[in-house]
Design brief:
The protein has about 280 residues and is of the alpha+beta class. About 35% of the residues lie in helices and about 20% in strands. The chain is built from ten helices and twelve strands. The protein has helices at about 1-5, 55-70, 100-105, 110-130, 180-185, 190-210, 220-230, 240-250, 260-265, 270-275; strands at about 10-15, 15-25, 30-35, 40-50, 80-85, 85-95, 135, 145, 150-155, 160, 170, 190. The strands form four sheets. It has a six-stranded antiparallel beta sheet with strand order 1-2-3-4-6-5. A two-stranded antiparallel sheet has the order 7-10. A hairpin with a 2-residue loop joins strand 1 and strand 2 (about 15-25). The structure holds adenosine-5'-diphosphate and magnesium ion (2 copies). One magnesium ion binds near residues 25, 156 and 158.
Length: about 280
């Protein structure tokens, strides 16, 4: 009934009736919408074409083609792209469970078991991306969404890139400073996969402790902490989880854990038997 009522408000985009705003980013607003016939819920990311410079347009077309190519249960689906004279609409799978940042803010931190279940799903998504030589480059809690059944959906491929081989060097600083690997702060060419792995280490630390491993009030201070590689894991974090965090947050990218090591780590091993 609520859905029917909502169908009668708001604007229409293609077959969709747009209702309330559910999120926003730098260049976009994300709205909840319903398919007029099937009543299926979707999220529509609305972009104002006139506000997009050439660089942003290029990134957006990359975001679209990469998302269209990815089919994985833990990666947010892009169903279709609609266009109006001044706007672009990305019709996305709806993730009704909010994002990981909001969840950690409201719960303080995740339990060890919840963290394992969430991390295992992020790992599965990133493994699939990297197997398809796609680097996300903006993994952070705001971009990890949940469905209403708490299934993880990795979202926001705005900084992602498809490389030609795993050893290809990249050179643009991408993502959010608190999640950025030391090599990104050095203004040098860097390898793709290890920067996503580093961000996953920051995510893991954030999930299990509710705090960020590297915090500072300015980016230059943050840069110094990250380059020095000093962070403190609270002693109450389980030993297998601490070992995983230390294996991931290694300043030297070649010494950093790779995804296959993470998949076999002791901390995650019981997950298969714990899953309902
Ligand atoms: P930006 O590239 O501007 O950061 P995002 O794609 O990350 O845009 O979306 C911004 C926010 O909107 C997300 O952090 C999330 O809270 C919300 N959001 C985005 N997509 C969805 C979706 N499919 N379902 C529910 N909420 C979403
Ligand atoms: Mg985002
Ligand atoms: Mg983005």
């Amino acid at each position: 009934e609520q859905a029917i009522k909502e169908l009668n408000v708001g604007r229409r985009v293609g077959f969709y009736k747009v209702c309330c705003e559910i999120g926003c980013g730098n260049f976009s607003k994300v709205k909840l919408a319903f398919h007029a016939l099937t009543k299926d819920k979707v999220a529509i990311k609305v972009l104002d074409k006139l506000r997009l410079d050439l660089q942003t347009q290029r990134m957006l077309s990359r975001e679209i083609s990469i998302m269209e190519s990815l089919h994985h249960p833990n990666i947010l689906r892009l169903y279709e792209v609609l266009e109006a004279p001044s706007r672009l609409y990305l019709v996305l799978e709806y993730a009704g469970g909010g994002d990981l940042h909001a969840r950690i803010s409201s719960e303080g931190k995740l339990s060890d078991l919840e963290s394992k279940l969430v991390f295992a799903q992020i790992l599965s998504a990133v493994k699939y991306m990297h197997d398809n030589i796609i680097i996300h480059r903006d993994l952070k809690a705001e971009n990890i969404l949940f469905t209403s059944n708490s299934c993880v959906k990795v979202a926001d491929f705005g900084f992602s890139t498809k490389i030609s081989k795993r050893s290809q060097m990249l050179d643009t600083f991408c993502g959010s400073p608190p999640y950025a690997a030391p090599e990104l702060f050095k203004d040098e060419a860097y390898l793709g996969p290890p920067v996503d792995v580093w961000a996953m280490g920051v995510l893991l630390f954030f999930m299990v402790t509710g705090t960020m491993p590297f915090r500072a009030d300015t980016v230059s201070k943050l840069r110094r902490f990250v380059l020095q590689g000093v962070y403190v894991i609270p002693t109450w974090v389980s030993a297998p989880c601490q070992r995983l965090i230390r294996g991931i947050l290694k300043p030297e990218p070649t010494e950093r854990c790779v995804l296959d090591q993470m998949l076999g780590c002791e901390w995650l091993l019981p997950v298969e038997t714990l899953r309902p």
